[in-house]
Amino acid sequence: ELVARTTGKAAATTQAAAASLADIVLLAIPWTATETVVKELGDLTGKIVIDPTNPYQRTAAGLAEHTVTTSAGEMIQGWLPQARVVKAFNTLSSLTMADPASAGGPVTIPLVGNDAEAKAVVAKLVESIGLEAIDLGPIQYAHEVEGMLIVWANARLSAKPFDYYLRRTTPAN
What we know:
By secondary structure, the chain is α/β, with parallel strands linked by helices. The chain contains 7 helices and 7 strands; from the N terminus they run ααβαβββαβαβαβα.
């Protein structure tokens, strides 16, 4: 019904059919659904897969903590060994994404992944919405980037919110 009311070339299809046509797949899903959805997407060989997921839960005290010992990024790369997985956007709130100026200054999006070209493509996407990208290395560092969300979420839950800005400096000799 929605497609019928939409102008242009709107269409409805399955997740797997959409992913098969895409160059970039964004996993905009809760962590708890990630393994099932990823495994149902089919062959994503050579495609860039952006992983903004965060495997966390709330503690009895109401704070956030990790629910996996490795990282979502590494797990997704393992489920999709021929895809080009880039962890990105997991430290960004929907409010800041919709209005980057609301942060009061620059916002940095950390990127990790094993494919330099894929990270460069994702960096251009990040910059196209008014944010800054920083490449923090291979997918093995996804756990640390996911930890940045834990720190960010707990600051918000403690009424001390902030947004990340990782300012580049001159390398030391």
